[in-house]
Design brief:
membrane, 2 helices, mainly alpha, 88 residues
Length: 88
């Protein structure tokens, strides 16, 4: 199946499935990197020796507000760009 026929990649996986799997891994890697970046940024902001931000709750509220608005904007734009089947 792998080399003889089928036109797929190793193990019989098609190119589109492999592309979706790799894209999923890429999204997870970006998510981990962004999460790490926010943690390091918060450490810098809240550290008394560096920036000494006196209001940690306000910093958390700003992060939560931004994070809750970003996915809703991206999901709304992707939902409007996909074609939906029309009811009969």
């Amino acid at each position: 199946m792998g080399r003889d026929g089928g036109g797929g990649v190793a193990g019989g996986m098609s190119d589109s499935v492999l592309r979706k799997v790799l894209l999923s891994y890429f999204y997870v890697a970006v998510w981990i990197f962004l999460s790490f970046s926010v943690i390091v940024y918060n450490k810098y902001i809240l550290d008394p020796k560096m920036y000494n931000w006196p209001f940690p709750i306000s910093l958390t509220m700003v992060h939560m507000g931004f994070c809750s608005s970003s996915p809703s904007r991206s999901s709304a734009s992707s939902a409007s760009s996909t074609s939906r089947p029309r009811p009969p």
